[in-house]
Amino acid sequence: MLAERIGYIIWVSDLKAARNLDKYGTVHYVSRKMHYVVMYVNADKAEETARNIQRLSYVKKVERSFRNELKTEYEKDIPDKTSFYGL
After folding, report:
1. In a domain, 77, yes or no
2. Alpha helix (H) residue ranges in 7-60
3. CATH number at residue 63
4. Which Pfam families does the UniProt record give (predicted)?
5. Half-sphere exposure of 22 toward its Cβ, with a 13 Å CA cutoff?
6. Structure pTM?
7. Which of 26, 39, 45, 64 counts the highest number of beta carbons within 10 A?
8. Dihedral angle at the C-alpha atoms of 83, 84, 86, 87, nearest 10 degrees?
């Protein structure tokens, strides 16, 4: 069974030093242009890990990602009008 994961967006000032974030969780993406890192950590230790990351000298800000809380199942209330028009 897979562990529950929480995503964090970490704004950094030094991209070379951001490689060290691998020991806190799984680094998913590193933006070289905008200087941020998207990483996932285990949910049971997420708050503690976020506090430890915030203490690092090259970290500007740590934001929690709400992607897993977004609704991804969509309902179609409006009927498809393409069937009325001949293609």
Report:
1. no
2. 46-54
3. 3.30.70.80
4. DUF2129
5. 6
6. 0.77
7. 39
8. -40
Which helix (H) or strand (E) segment holds residue 49: the answer is helix 46-54
Q: Tokens 């970490």: give the residue.
A: 10
The C-alpha atoms of residue 27 and residue 41 are separated, in whole angstroms, by: 9
* Joined tokens for residue 62: 């740590």
82 falls within a domain:
no
Structure-token match 């974030």, residue found = 21
Domain count, the chain: 1
Q: Which residues constitute the domain of residue 58?
A: 5-68
Q: What is the pLDDT along the chain (87 residues), one digit of tens a residue?
A: 678 899 999 999 999 999 999 999 999 999 999 999 999 999 999 999 999 999 999 999 999 998 878 887 877 777 777 777 765
Place of tokens 């409006």: 78
